[in-house]
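Structure (tokenized):
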């Protein structure tokens, strides 16, 4: 049962306290979190911070709550200026508070514009209405935000290897106190050992990513409940304002949070799709080796937060145990495999690879698209037209060699990081297929080929339709299709044994 409400919150549930002559408030709804009260009144939301001190935040005094309200307003206006309006004082005695009143201030509230709660991504996910195109839009929103976010100066401790390990270690210390049962203590010990080993393997990479500018002033709390679909566009809100350590983080840690939340919602296809769309848009493949470390860390952060909430409400910590199990699964991924596609333009390679991604129950498959990576090599946006003639520009023989070499390097690195890889490329020549088959053998992973089939009439129809639609990374024309059909080297009998 809910504890008795504080007098201030109880009084603020009275609709008459929210003067709005144009849209009278008929009812005030209350949402409680472990650190805040949210009062939903008409067109607005008033967020009041609890006077609590937790291991990771301090709202213990009125002045600290004011400072945090002002910081929350400033930080969230980076990406949601239309939703975050102002900080308002609350005056008067707690039993008769006046929002925006004069006199001694007893509390502060962050005033926000209200949106339809049904549009939150966690609610969409629960109703089975979250779609790949929503997740693709989310990946674009995150990438765009990160590109504009401030970069942590090298002299700051944010994102330095010692700080990364310290945050993970603190997490375990807090979880050990929150989950005292013997079984959970043993599981936490194993996860702590994995975390330390993985950190040792990636310590140099953490440092390199800090030096490269990958540590930025991020959102910090990017789970599905802090994302909302408004007018078919995903919006972020409610970033972390109370801790610079939790906000100035590697962008890989940011994406890992949403990734594990989709996994927790039993949406591995969408989780994998998010990571792939983010990597395709950002080109930050250097993040992949540290992504699993951050995913385990984020799952354990969620375990800690849910355990704290359960303790506050004298409830069941079952959700914390579920996150613990998720962390264990992430720490022991399935053995990687390498899949390449084969076929001319319009045969359905990208559709087939998309199905494989969305169908991966482990969400541990990454796709490399030759059309996207070729353009990235030459500084061309994925959906932009390079203006290259057939066989010229970025499609010369030398450019193709560079593209396949880049795909090979990326594939080797991703496999070494423990992720399965799909290389979505034409692979019309036997020599190029053999090179990637040898790469799989060297990495000790299984090798497969996906070779969709279509009639010449279907191929021509699809190429014409794609060109008419535009906004696709592929620039294949009917003339290019005919050249491919004339030059394709069909699969040998040994290769047909690798068909997936």
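Design, position by position:
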């Amino acid at each position: 049962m809910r504890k008795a409400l504080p007098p201030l919150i109880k009084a603020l549930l009275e609709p008459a306290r929210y003067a709005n002559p144009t849209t009278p408030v008929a009812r005030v709804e209350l949402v409680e979190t472990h650190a805040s009260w949210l009062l939903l009144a008409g067109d607005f939301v008033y967020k009041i911070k609890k006077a609590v001190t937790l291991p990771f935040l301090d709202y213990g005094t009125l002045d600290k709550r004011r400072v945090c309200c002002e910081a929350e307003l400033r930080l969230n206006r980076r990406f949601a200026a239309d939703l975050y309006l102002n900080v308002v004082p609350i005056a008067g005695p707690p039993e008769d508070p006046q929002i925006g009143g004069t006199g001694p201030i007893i509390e502060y509230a962050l005033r926000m514009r209200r949106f339809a709660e049904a549009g939150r991504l966690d609610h969409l996910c629960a109703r089975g209405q979250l779609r790949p195109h929503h997740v693709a839009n989310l990946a674009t929103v995150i990438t765009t935000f990160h590109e504009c976010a401030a970069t942590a100066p090298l002299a700051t401790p944010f994102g330095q290897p010692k700080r990364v390990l310290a945050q993970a270690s603190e997490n375990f210390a807090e979880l050990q106190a929150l989950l005292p049962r013997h079984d959970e203590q043993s599981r936490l010990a194993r996860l702590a050992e994995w975390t330390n080993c993985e950190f040792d393997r990636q310590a140099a990479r953490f440092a390199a990513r800090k030096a490269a500018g990958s540590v930025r002033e991020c959102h910090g709390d990017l789970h599905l409940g802090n994302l909302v679909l408004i007018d078919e566009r995903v919006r972020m809100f409610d970033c972390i304002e109370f801790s610079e350590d939790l906000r100035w983080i590697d962008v890989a840690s940011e994406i890992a949070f949403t990734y594990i939340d989709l996994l927790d919602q039993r949406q591995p296809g969408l989780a994998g799709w998010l990571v792939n769309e983010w990597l395709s848009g950002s080109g930050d493949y250097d993040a992949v080796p540290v992504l699993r470390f951050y995913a385990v860390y984020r799952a354990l952060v969620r375990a800690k937060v849910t355990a704290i909430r359960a303790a506050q409400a004298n409830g069941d910590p079952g959700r914390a145990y579920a996150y613990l199990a998720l962390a264990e699964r992430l720490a022991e991924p399935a053995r990687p495999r390498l899949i390449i596609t084969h076929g001319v333009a319009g045969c359905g390679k990208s559709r087939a690879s998309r199905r494989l991604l969305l169908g991966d129950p482990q969400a541990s498959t990454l796709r490399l698209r030759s059309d996207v990576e070729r353009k990235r090599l030459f500084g061309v946006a994925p959906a932009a037209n390079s203006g290259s003639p057939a066989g010229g520009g970025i499609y010369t023989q030398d450019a193709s060699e560079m593209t396949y070499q880049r795909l090979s390097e990326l594939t080797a690195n991703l496999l070494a990081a423990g992720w399965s890889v799909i290389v979505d490329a034409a692979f019309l020549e036997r020599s190029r297929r053999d090179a990637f088959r040898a790469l799989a053998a060297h990495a000790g992973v299984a090798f497969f080929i996906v070779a969709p089939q279509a009639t010449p009439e279907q191929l021509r129809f699809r190429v014409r339709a794609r060109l008419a639609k535009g906004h696709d990374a592929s620039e294949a024309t009917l003339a290019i299709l005919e050249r491919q059909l004339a030059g394709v080297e069909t699969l040998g009998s040994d290769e047909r044994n690798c068909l997936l």
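Reviewer-requested clarification: The longest strand covers residues 105-113. The longest helix spans residues 182-211.
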